[in-house]
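Render this sequence as a predicted structure.
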Amino acid sequence: MPAPRTDRTGVVVTGMSVTTAFGRGPEALGRALTAGRPAFAEVTRFDVTRRRAKHAAHLPGDPDLHTELTAVVHEAAAQAELTEDLAAGTPLLFARHADASWARRPLAEQPRHHHAASGAALAAATGLRGADRTYTNACVAASTAVADAAALIAAGREERVVVAAGYLVDPDVYGLFDAGRALATDGQLRSFSAGRKGLLLGDGVAAVVLEAAPAAERRGARPLARLTGWGRAGDAYHVCQPHPEGLGMARAITAALERAGRTPEQVDYVNAHGTGTPYNDSAETAAVHLAFGEHAAKVPVSSTKSLTGHTLEASGAVELAVSLLVLADGRLPVNAGYLGEDPACRLDLVVDAPRAVRPRTVLSLNAAFGGANTALVLEAT
């Protein structure tokens, strides 16, 4: 592993906002992380009487994704103190679920509702330069967008980039996951736990402003954290299942740590993907052990999907927001719903209550169908 050294990329986070089932804004999510109580409740947004599973983590009513995205982008830009002129020169990288209802619309209407068009509409509504890319690559969509944004900045191609991502629990995806027996029928997402029964969906909408450190310094912006490492790797093992030995995830972790110039011993907390499914959790555990070696038994781990639900394409952005809150607050969120040790998931899990450790370096992991894996390294300023 590389020797510790200072950040080479100079990428900082200067703005962030997030909405989950706990409410709108980082403060609502921060309070929920401290309380450690999951947001799962019986679904009221649509009819689930004929479904095996009955629970999700969603906001009241039927919120509009474009409206929610517009709000978090405005809030993140305001925290970053972006002027209208700065925003007008800033590109948007956008991650969202590919809307199944798009194909059911009349052909004449489809171009206006295509996912790429929704990115352009979001950029126009928030005064950004335009939506350069729209990502729909499952549960690594947002984290891939973050990594691409950081790479653009590190290469000097952009001074700043806004990344936004969103998913709101909908009947199409709920029905698909329920039919596939992927949803937990006991109403809890029990990441890495014995007796876990699957995932549960959750609302998630988030935005971050990434910026070159010199550009932020010139205009007096105060960084929330440094994004020092990012890594991506594929398994090419199975369309739905991760490699059981966690090979792709381990490569992503190693690449992110090498870019950050950090060793496993310097990681203070891992915000895991942890979907609460048997295959994913055991494979992710194997990846952590492969990448971290002996330190795997010592690094604290939790999956905040056990609190917020699985926000699909928005996961990487929502969990980046969680990681920023962890660095600011100094407490590690719980791995909720834990019933006991699974021999295939031997990790130092944060259970029962948040753990006060004042982390300096946080690793955020995501994985997706098709064998895609991402790792992001955040460090306190």
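Summary. The CA atoms of residues 246 and 284 lie 6 Å apart. The first helix runs from residue 26 to 35.
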